[in-house]
Amino acid sequence: MSMDPREELLTTCAWCLQHIEQGEELFGFGARASPSIDLSDKEGQFISLKLALQDKIIPVLVPSRTSQAHKDGYDLMFITCSAECAQDLKDALELEIDVFKDYSPPEG
Ligand SMILES: [Zn+2]
User: Fold this and answer.
1) I want to staple 69 with a disulfide (CB 3.0 to 4.6 A). Which of 17, 32, 34, 74 is the partner?
2) Which chain residues have CB less than 5 Å from ligand 1, an ion?
3) In this model, does residue 104 exceed pLDDT 70?
4) Domain residue ranges in the chain
5) How far is CA 10 from the centre of its chain?
6) How far is the CA of 106 from the centre of ligand 1 (A)?
7) Measured in angstroms, how far is the CA atom of residue 104 from the centroid of ligand 1?
């Protein structure tokens, strides 16, 4: 029995990659993508986000235009199995963002 890869990712924790049993509570959270990134052809699909510092690939859902997440203003949705995983993932994302925070393009 093979599972639709999309269905499979919807039941996989983005952080610990543990399978989330059907009916179990999901701990998802949304994020905004940079406006310079066009995700319109990825709506309703999963994309892979590489966390360079963690050497981890995180599956991220791009909510479809009709979804609640999109209406809430989110461009990306992370699905995790527990509050701990959600927090660890948020911390990891913040760490990655911090790396670029003080970056400014070279003058000239
Ligand atoms: Zn997890």
Assistant:
1) 74
2) 13, 15-16, 18, 81, 85
3) no
4) 5-33+44-100
5) 11
6) 40
7) 35
